[in-house]
Amino acid sequence: MSNPPLIDVHHHALPVVYTAALAQHGVTEAIPGQEFPAWSPELSLRFMDAHNIQKAYLSVTAPGFAGLTGREAIQLAHDVNAWLATLSSESTGRFGAFAMIPLDSPDTAYAAAVTAIEDMQLDGVGLYTSTAGQYLGSSDLDPLWEYLEAQQIPVFIHPVVGSGEVPSFGLPASILEFPIETARAVASFLFSGRLDRFSNLKLIFTHAGGALPILLHRLSLRCSVDPALAARPPIDLMASIGRLYFDLAMSAAPGNLEALRSLISADQLLFGSDFPLQDEFYAGENADVVYSMDLARNTTANAHAVFARHPVSLSAAAPCRGE
Fold first, then answer.
1. Is the peptide bond before 233 cis (omega within 30 degrees of 0)?
2. DSSP 12
3. DSSP letters of 28-77?
4. Does the pLDDT at position 233 exceed 90?
5. CA separation for the pair 242, 239 (Å, rounded)
6. pLDDT value at position 164?
7. Residues of the chain with pLDDT > 90: what percent?
8. Buried b (16+ CB within 10 A) or exposed e, 142-180
9. Domains of the chain, CATH where assigned
10. Across the strands, what pairs with 57?
11. Are strands 6-12 and 53-59 parallel, antiparallel or unpaired?
């Protein structure tokens, strides 16, 4: 039986409206030491066609708002979201998009989400693991979570370099810091109680959960290390993790996927390429591994479920692999 085409939930857009705004503030790198790569919708479509990808949901990569706050952050998000909405509507179903959402204040975040979802008709929201040291488990964001849960809006959560100095050992942040930052973000949801309070959120974490699979057992030992933690409400870690989705970007190795699969079901996996931050060879390798491990049908079916609010158009379908 032929495998279905893939749906890519981790695919980055780098519109000029975004890169130019950051350049005005001296930011020309996605992460320290890595310049923004060349990108256009045409480059994405060429990559998608070469790797049997039916549709890509675009998001803006790190560094996100890069320190922009207040009116500048609000304007940047609005301009980027309007650009994404236009591209999506003109792409005959090949592109969807996650909106940029500034998190300066609860009111700002809520208003930006409503505008992006209801007025611009974007498919979901894209958030970063932390903003100025505040992680997503903060109670300040409860109005945003209430709206996103009620409307069943997919939330794509991408790592950024956290606040403060962290040792890099000469490595790009995406190699070492991003997996750790993703684990921090999941822990923030778990131990703030937000994941229990908003149990029907559609949360997508990147890179096969980053460092989370290897840390989950250690998290379960927290009370043995600090008995005072036993006074907190109990958390069923496995049940909580079972409510999350994980994309497989930068995880094209059977060992990585097996570690994640030991914790979750195939119903929680989504395909992600990380193009163009990962070049065509390595981003395409992710697709090859998903096919070789017979996970393509799962990831595509899961994407249809995640984006049920705006169903994936069959008219955009690429031919099945091998046809």
1. no
2. E
3. -EEETTEEPPP--HHHHHHHHHHTTEEEEEEE--TTTTTT--HHHHHHHH
4. no
5. 5
6. 66
7. 72
8. eebbebbbeeebbbbbbbbbbeeeeeeeeeebbeebbbb
9. 6-310 (3.20.20.140)
10. 96
11. parallel
